[in-house]
Amino acid sequence: MDRFFREDVRDLENIRDLSALEMMADMLKDRIGSPLSLQSLREDLEVSHRSVTHWLDILERLYFCFRVHPFTHRAVSSLKKAAKVYLWDWSVTPAPGARFENLVAGHLLKMKHYLEDQEGYNIDLHYLRDTSKREVDFL
């Protein structure tokens, strides 16, 4: 991971506080499978909301993590609009339950990409959570 941040991120992106980005990436490992609060990350790192959003976009572009957004529709009243974050390398996730959920999310995303590229389907990967706090991890 040190090589990833010191070489890839530093060479491809203009980041002033590389150590804070590394801390955020480390914090993401503990937040797998739960709605991601950018406000909470911002407070923990003591940086601006814009910086956290930018850093998360960088980590997504460099295939460190990916987000699964909630399914939203007028007929479904969603509890939160926050996306869930998963890592491409699911093996570094510390908790066994979160690691398994991350594994499933990664394989579903790969299947989504395959169906879009090979078969031409237009599909998305979402999760569903209602006001009663019932949740479907993948939709």
Molecular structure report:
The chain is an alpha+beta fold and 139 residues long. The protein is 48% helix and 12% strand. The protein contains five helices and four strands. A four-stranded mixed β-sheet has the order 2-1-3-4, with helices on both faces. Strand 3 (126-129) and strand 4 form a beta hairpin. Helix 3 (38-45) crosses helix 4 (49-61). The two termini are 31 Å apart. The mean pLDDT is 88.
The count of helical stretches stands at: 5
| Distance between the amino and carboxyl termini | 31 Å
Number of strands: 4
How is the main sheet built?
4 strands, mixed
SS class = alpha+beta
How helical, in percent, are the residues? 40-55%
Neighbour order of strands in the largest sheet: 2-1-3-4
- Beta fraction of the residues? 5-15%
Radius of gyration: 16 Å
Shape: globular
Poorly predicted spans: none
Question: From N to C, what is the helix and strand string?
Answer: HHHHEEHEE
Overall pLDDT confidence: 88
Outline of the structure:
It is built from five helices and four strands. The chain has helices at 2-12, 18-28, 38-45, 49-61, 96-119; strands at residues 65-70, 84-87, 126-129, 135-136.
Give a topology summary.
Blueprint (H helix, E strand, L loop, with lengths): L1 H11 L5 H11 L9 H8 L3 H13 L3 E6 L13 E4 L8 H24 L6 E4 L5 E2 L3
Parallel strand pairs: 1-3
Antiparallel strand pairs: 1-2, 3-4
Helix pairs in contact: 3-4
